Amino acid sequence: MRQYSLPTIVSYLVGPTLIIVSHVGSLLVLTTGLSWGAIAWIITLYLIRMLATTGIYHRLLTHKSYQTPAPLLWIGSIVAASAGQMGPSWWKAHHLIHHQYVESDRDPHSPYTPFLGIKGFYWAQGGWLLSSRFFPDKLPLDVESDLVLKVVDRLHFIPLVALGAISYYFGGLEYLGAFFLSTTLLFHGVQTVNSLSHIVGDQPFITDDHSRNSGLVAFLTLGEGWHNLHHAFQSSCRHGITIRDGEVVYLPDPTFGFIKMLEFLKLASKLRLPNEKDLLAKAKKQDFQNLELALASKKTNF
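Predicted structure:
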């Protein structure tokens, strides 16, 4: 395990502490109630911060599925940190470990190891954050060499605390409770990619794991739930792709829509996408078998 300095250890441990605080703080809404304005605040904070997590932390920072100017990466990382998603070095380190050791003993948040069933679901849904797995073995050199990203990583809790203070300033305890609830919902939304997207859904592509395409998780995470595609083509900036009856089908993927908007505004370039030939080559054989059966059936009817 990497040797962390004491300030870094303390900084990182603030992360799960604030998530626990958010869970408890969500109970405020039971006493304050929620106006339509507070509900809109919950939804707005959820969508913006989820998009920063999926579009910036995941598809840009970790998998480099497209390119942007550095200031956009820095700002997006600050917004993602305000979601309680820790800092960019920590986040990327854990995600790369997941892909490298998927569903093995070294996968930090698999629903299959070290536990199965309900315990495995709890572990993948966030229980792993309260274990020794919380500290990654090593931090990514490319993020650590960027001074701005490194500062954001070590001070990851400041954007979250600042957003809580802003919420209180806007609407007192009601909006503070809304902030806590939005953060809690977002936390569990992100974690469903670790848990549900490896348990339920279909597997149109060949991979060496249980990753699945889940419409429910895709809805909660703005497209991240098309997880089987992501494991089959990790560098793709579009996850919403499947195979039906031997044909490529494109699925709703709001995060990809965000990336395309950035491209339109000249803020994103070099988008990485698999071509249809590669997609079909990676498709499970039964899709082609179903297509052959359908064609044979048509010939028989003639």
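Summary: Residues 157-194 form the longest helix (38 residues).
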